[in-house]
Design a protein that fits this description.
Layout: H1 2-18, E1 28-31, E2 34-37, E3 42-49, E4 52-53, E5 59-60, H2 63-80, E6 82-84, E7 87-88, H3 89-93, H4 97-108, E8 111-117, E9 123-130, H5 134-139, H6 166-169, E10 178-181, E11 195-197, E12 202-204, H7 211-217, E13 221-223, H8 226-230, E14 240-247, E15 255-257, H9 259-267, H10 271-276, E16 280-283
Parallel strand pairs: 10-14, 10-16, 11-15, 13-16
Antiparallel strand pairs: 1-2, 2-3, 3-9, 4-5, 6-7, 8-9, 11-12, 14-15
Amino acid sequence: MKTHQLLILGAVVLSVAIFPAQALPQCIQPLENGYINWTTGLVTATGHAAPEINAEGKAMAMPGSARACAIRNLIAVLKQMKISNDLTVGEYASTHDAILAGIEKIAQDARIRRQLYTSALDVEVRVEAPFYGGFLQLVLPDHIRQISKIRRELNQGTAEPVKNTPSAVAGTRPYTGLIVDARTLNLELVLYPTIVSEQGREIYSSVFVSREFAVQNGVCAYLCDMDQALASDRVGLNPLVVKALRKTGDRTDAIVMSMADAKTLDRATERHIFLKECRVIVLVKPPVQKEVRTAQ
């Protein structure tokens, strides 16, 4: 009964934290004992611990044990993330001891977001860690490499167009990023998505991405609201908005862009800058707003 009360309290707090009133929807993937927030770049996990009886016969709360449980669960959640459609982080790390050690270190360094006690001294601890930065450096494929510096055509930060860009010289407003509307697709969220044309030509892949930006900010951002995407600094003031046609259906399950949209992108020479800097947003279906309950 006491554990049940703790779980109800944890579920209520967690559901409020994930879906605050009138907040924009976020792309959240719930998993056992935690969840991945693909919009904010944060991974969260919870752990529980029952009280232990000391030498004097008194019940003692065990927050350290609850934190250790949360860290184990966070490692499990991180391992369930998909690098690509056919490869999970856990599968990749299983053959790379250094990567597995790095993942464990990231989990150990996770910050405590909430610590809850019941009157019976049961403890629940929630921990949180970013997957941008060190984690992506560990797990992104080696063929995503540093690209040599390209002449700046976009201002840093808001990606605001500059007058001397090729598109501006031609009399058109230069694009500052790419938004791919994939809300009609059942898209599985991955750390390293790829986009291809109807003919199968790569539009966005490791060839176009510089590792420093992929590690710092992710290969793309996942959002669920078009207004939110259009207002994002990531894609700047004038992003090219395209609609995903379908998925390839093969091992890669890449996002397919129409021939017309691919040609529009090809004509924009400034694409080399914003693709290199991962100024890409993929719009996906909003999540179903339901409570994410944590397991005992």
